[in-house]
Design goal:
Elements (H helix, E strand, L loop, with lengths): L39 H11 L11 H8 L1 H34 L2 H9 L4 H37 L7 H28 L3 H7 L1
Helix pairs in contact: 3-6, 4-6, 4-7, 5-6
C-alpha cells in the first residue's frame, strides 16, 4: 500500500523474501522518458523470463496506486466538508434568529430614544454595535471550540489535510456579516416607528 501523507518512519528494514514469504509482493519500476503505459508489455516479458509461473497483476501507474490508497481519506474529507457546510448554515440561521429577535424586542426602546431626540443614524449605530458584539462573542466561542475539535480530528485522521486558518477566517467574517444584517433589519424597522406610538406602547 502507498500512503504518501503518512509520517515518515525513522528507519526501514529489508528482509529476504525467503525469511518471511508472503502470498503477494509489489515492485516499483521507474521509467525514464517513457509513458508508463508503454512499459507494460516489457515488464510482463521480463517477469516471465525470470519465472514463467509468476503471475503479474495490476500493472498501473504510481499516480493511480496513490489515488486508490487515498480514496478512503477523500471520502472522509467530503463527509466532513458536507457536515461543516451544514453546520455553518445552521449556525448562520441560528445567529440571525437570535440577534434579530433580541433587537426586535428593543423596538419600543428605539422608538423612545427617537422621541427623546436621538437620530436614526444613532439608533442604527447602536443596534449594529450591539449585534456585532453578540456576533464577536459567538465567533470567539466558536473558534475556541473549532480549534479543539480540529486537533481531535487530526489525531484521529492524521492523513486528513486541514487548512484551518483560511477556513476559520472566512467563516468568522461570514458569521459577523450575518450578525450585522440581522441587526440592521430591526434597526431599519425601529427608525420608521412613530415616537408617539412607542410612548403609548410603554
Amino acid at each position: 500500500m502507498v500512503y504518501p501523507d503518512r509520517i515518515s518512519v525513522p528507519y526501514q528494514l529489508y528482509q529476504p523474501q525467503a525469511q518471511e514469504p508472503r502470498p503477494g509482493s509489489e515492485i516499483a519500476v521507474r521509467t525514464a522518458g517513457a509513458a508508463p503505459s508503454t512499459m507494460v508489455d516489457g515488464i510482463r516479458t521480463t517477469m516471465a523470463a525470470l519465472d514463467p509461473d509468476l503471475p503479474v497483476r495490476e500493472l498501473q501507474a504510481a499516480e493511480t496506486t496513490i489515488a486508490k490508497a487515498n480514496d478512503q481519506w477523500q471520502v472522509v474529507g467530503r463527509m466532513l466538508s458536507f457536515l461543516a457546510v451544514l453546520g455553518l448554515a445552521l449556525a448562520s440561521l441560528g445567529m440571525y434568529g437570535v440577534i434579530a429577535r433580541t433587537m426586535a424586542q428593543r423596538t419600543s426602546e428605539f422608538g423612545i430614544r427617537i422621541a427623546l431626540g436621538a437620530q436614526v443614524r444613532d439608533i442604527t449605530r447602536l443596534v449594529l454595535a450591539s449585534g456585532a458584539t453578540l456576533a464577536l462573542i459567538g465567533c470567539a466561542l466558536g473558534l475556541f471550540g473549532a480549534f479543539g475539535i480540529s486537533r481531535l480530528i487530526i489525531v484521529i485522521f492524521p492523513n486528513l489535510q486541514m487548512s484551518s486558518a483560511p477556513v476559520l477566517s472566512g467563516v468568522t467574517v461570514l458569521l459577523i456579516a450575518v450578525g450585522l444584517i440581522a441587526s440592521y433589519m430591526p434597526a431599519r424597522t425601529a427608525s420608521r416607528i412613530s415616537p408617539t406610538e412607542a410612548l403609548r406602547a410603554e
